[in-house]
């Protein structure tokens, strides 16, 4: 028993002696701190890598969608409105020059300037009392041009969808600049005078151009912008119907050809019969010139 107690006591004394050394506890603290610091650094590195992966995935998703243009869902189609803020207060004082109109209408749509007549490529609107009035954008779009011209006055051009451009001339002032986004019925300026058409006084000259060609604005008032077409597009759309008409005409010509041949044969037979029946008349007619010649000689 005593030997075992001595062994147990000696073991305790050795452990106590080990912990009594000065460097034991600082070493334990340093080892613990190193372990904790290593764990913290490892956790941070794992978290940073995870955040980088998430950010990279989000960037890939963003780039996948940013390359495609944003399309507004269920976007309503706008109808062309009057360029005057109060349409009831103005009237058309000069119409669009239409090549298919009557001569009187074409003459009324000519603009006289510098001893030259020019066809009106738009419509001119003015008040009866010759007062200024607000001019608005007939459709939403982007201002392409806003400048003052010495002959035309202030000129504003606005680009719209479907390659449509609206032009506003003879403005006394302009409230927009090139690059501005405007909405339908936004005031863009005031009507004024210009040198090109002094006869109309204070007015606004309004044009609609489709693919660079002027069209009659009056024909598209209160109609959707998608309905605006040029004469070339209209002709191309009707080309598909032309062959059918030609085929019908050719069939009718084929039916009438035999009838015409029959009528020609009948006429020839009648001529032969008249020649056979009236030989005496032919002789008398041939003798008359001779008689006249003899009388002239006498």
From TrEMBL:
Keywords for the protein's UniProt record, in alphabetical order: Hydrolase, Membrane, Transmembrane, Transmembrane helix
Signal peptide: none
Coiled-coil segments on the chain, per record: none
Matching SUPFAM superfamilies: Duplicated hybrid motif (SSF51261)
Stretches with biased composition (Acidic residues): 262-279
UniProt keyword Acyltransferase, yes or no: no
Region Disordered: start-end pairs: 216-298
Pfam families xrefs: Peptidase_M23
Top-rank taxon, per record: Bacteria
Transmembrane segments: 23-43
Biased composition (Basic and acidic residues): 280-291
GO molecular function, a single term: hydrolase activity
EC number: 3.4.-.-
Residues annotated as domain M23ase beta-sheet core: 119-217
Protein name listed in UniProt: M23 family metallopeptidase
């Amino acid at each position: 028993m005593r030997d075992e107690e001595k062994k147990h006591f000696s073991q305790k004394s050795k452990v106590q002696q080990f912990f009594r050394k000065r460097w034991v506890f600082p070493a334990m603290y340093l080892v613990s701190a190193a372990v904790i610091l290593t764990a913290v650094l490892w956790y941070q590195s794992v978290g940073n890598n995870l955040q980088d992966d998430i950010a990279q995935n989000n960037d890939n998703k963003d780039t996948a969608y940013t390359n495609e243009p944003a399309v507004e869902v269920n976007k309503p189609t706008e109808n062309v409105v009057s360029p005057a803020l109060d349409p009831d207060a103005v009237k058309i004082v000069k119409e669009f020059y239409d090549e298919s109109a009557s001569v009187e209408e074409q003459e009324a749509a000519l603009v006289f300037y510098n001893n030259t007549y020019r066809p009106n490529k738009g419509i001119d609107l003015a008040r009866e009392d010759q007062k200024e009035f607000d001019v608005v954008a007939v459709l939403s779009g982007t201002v392409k041009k806003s400048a003052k011209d010495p002959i035309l006055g202030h000129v504003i051009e606005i680009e719209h969808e479907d390659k449509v451009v609206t032009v506003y001339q003879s403005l006394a002032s302009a409230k927009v600049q090139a690059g501005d986004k405007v909405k339908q019925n936004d005031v863009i300026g005031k009507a004024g005078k210009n040198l090109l058409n002094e006869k109309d006084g204070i007015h606004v000259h309004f044009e609609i151009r489709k693919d660079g060609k002027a069209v009659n604005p009056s024909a598209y008032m209160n109609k959707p912008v998608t309905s605006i077409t040029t004469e070339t597009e209209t002709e191309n759309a009707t080309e598909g119907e032309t062959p059918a008409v030609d085929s019908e005409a050719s069939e009718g010509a084929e039916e009438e050809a035999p009838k015409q041949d029959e009528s020609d044969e009948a006429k020839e037979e009648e001529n032969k019969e008249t020649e056979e029946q009236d030989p005496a008349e032919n002789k008398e007619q041939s003798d008359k010139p001779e008689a006249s010649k003899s009388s002239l000689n006498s």
